[in-house]
Amino acid sequence: MYMMELTERVENVLELSLTQKNGLEKLHVNTVRDLLWHFPARYEDFSRFKTISNVTPKEHITVEGKITHIDLRKTWKSKVAIAEGTFADATGTLKLIWFHQPYIARFLKDGDLIRIRGEIQSGKRGLYIANPFFEKIDRLSISLNIKERGLIPVYPETRGISSRWLHFHITKLLQSASLNFKDILPKAILTTYHLPSLIHSLRAIHTPRNEREAEGARKRFAFEEIFLLQLSRIKERKLLEKKKSFILKTDEEALKEFLEKPPFTLTASQRIVLEDLKNDIATPTPMARLLEGDVGSGKTILAAIISFIAVKNDAQVAYMAPTEILASQHFNAFSELFKGLRIKIGLITSSDTRVFPSKAFPKTSAHVSRTQLLRWAKSGEIKILIGTHALIEKKVQFNNLALIVVDEQHRFGVQQRARLARTKMQTENPLPHFLSMTATPIPRTLALTVYGDLDLSVLDEMPPGRSPTETMILMGRTRKKAWDTMREEINKGHQAFVICPRIEHDDDRIKSVKKEAERLKKEIFPDFTIGVLHGKLTPKEKETTMEKYKKGEIQILVSTSVIEVGIDIPNATVMVVEGAERFGLAQLHQMRGRIGRGKHKSIFFVISDSQGEKTKDRLHALRNARSGFELAEYDLQLRGAGELTGSSQWGISDVGMEALKNIKMVEAARKEARNIIEKDPELSQSPLLKGEIEIINKKLLHFE
Ligand code: ADP
Ligand code: MG
What we know:
Layout: H1 10-13, H2 18-26, H3 32-36, E1 42-45, E2 60-74, E3 81-89, E4 92-99, H4 103-107, E5 113-123, E6 126-130, E7 133-136, E8 151-154, H5 163-175, H6 187-192, H7 198-206, H8 211-242, H9 252-258, H10 268-281, E9 288-293, H11 299-312, E10 316-320, H12 324-337, E11 345-348, E12 353-356, E13 366-367, H13 370-379, E14 384-387, E15 401-406, H14 414-425, E16 433-438, H15 444-450, E17 455-459, E18 470-475, H16 480-491, E19 495-499, H17 513-524, E20 530-533, H18 539-551, E21 556-559, E22 572-577, H19 585-592, E23 603-608, H20 613-624, H21 628-638, H22 647-650, H23 654-659, H24 663-679, H25 687-701
Magnesium ion (MG) binds near residues 299, 300, 407 and 566.
């Protein structure tokens, strides 16, 4: 009999049109395995489905039907934009009203089939639903045999591939007799943790008879995902430990001298971490360490010290940052710290190549040609090369690269880039030491999973002389308090940030950098200088603006969240974030860290016009959390499945993210993964697991 393999390509199993092929590709579905692991985001409970003729006020319902009329108007008094629609099914009509969402009137048109959910209310003009959740559908579900099955899966869909299509084909696949996959998880693990078998779980997650059955299956897949990730990391770590790296000894005398330059002494926490780093690089086993420290905790100086030690051993260092702004900031900071030491430092980004010190003016840097810079990197003349991901291009070669530092590695895509950097440079022999730094405090369970191959150091102490930043929440209220504070602070000679969620936007209720900058200039702060910063500016424009802001020539910087990362402006004491509900908690925490970096007390205003309870809870957590780590744990617990926008950043599915809420499960998965690698480091006795890990690693590298 024909046996289908999980690795079989979908087009060999299903007949697909070109649109469908493209759609599947977009969903990252290439193989039968991908298709079967494309899990429903939720289930529609069809027992709640209603027809309009039998709804009653206050009832929460789901109805399907047609838009028969849609229009846009403004309320007479408050000028609130209202999209108003009439909705009909075979049994009657309902009114639909959306407040504050004028775009809905543009998005929906007469005749559209939609499914809506919401609470029935009764008004002067009959029954209606306010702000219903809706989705466009291509067919009414009434044709489905609703009585037979209460739960219908709803899949993430894309053009050409509807949830309905997925439901149909996955169900068919699961019913086919040729399905006879071996379980990926070892039997002993299934038994120990009472997890259902693979086949059973696949059927239960795609075609559950009830919620409980679906739950059990999700738990199994969550465990599976976390377990496989851990296994891959722990395996990688084991391999790494077999490799040889440079032995970099610390010249204590020289280090002491080096540390006399910065105008401060290291905190106790910095000293402890420095010991970790010194020990790591003094042994021939490659360092693989993650340094976590809240924004402003002083990671850069540690990167500089460790680079100094490497260079003193006559080796080279590569220092990678996620953005051009940050890379040049590090380059400038390093130039300052290494002044007078006759150590050549290079900067490479996609738009600039520089070197310090310049021949003519040894206290400054100078532009050099890319070719020259690359030549110096290859010959070993440049000791420290700082850059963006331009640093890991093939053309960039080193003579004796002994240390790689990756800064702010949490930034979107950079986790992958860091890995890429390491993988690329792992062809070097001996292998360079590797230090990764992040300011994103991530929950422990996530760290154990995605960084399972790294040792962890934590900077848990802030440099002295800073007063904690105060957080003020302005919800649906006037901004007067924020503007008054800004004015006061700027009059004291300080500077301010205003962060908007968008660069430009038609809808006035979503603040955009361009409009807001103009408005502030015209209506609120005509007497102050205002600059703008966002991702659409050229690198040159960005740099000029940052330079001006640093020098104090710009008093208010209106920006998108691009300033989220690393920028150091101690004179900035106020930040106002508009549309706070549009940012993640970790992101807001990062932004807050941009101020309060000097001696002066700083104030962080978060503004949200949303009245939602959830937004309120989140912002209160932001205000009250004692540290970023606390906030991260809170964030993880607070986010519902399916809403985990951050998950793609880690290469973890929504199902996997659910598992991260459960420390016991994560630790169990880790223990099992360790046991297996301990006994069989190459996984030669578990070809199935080995294959899975290869898939994971490939995915990680192709992530962006
Ligand atoms: P981050 O960890 O966010 O990268 P930085 O390395 O940019 O933080 O440091 C933030 C600021 O703190 C910098 O201005 C830096 O010079 C300063 N700093 C670092 N270590 C100390 C210290 N031990 N004492 C006082 N200031 C310090
Ligand atoms: Mg930093």
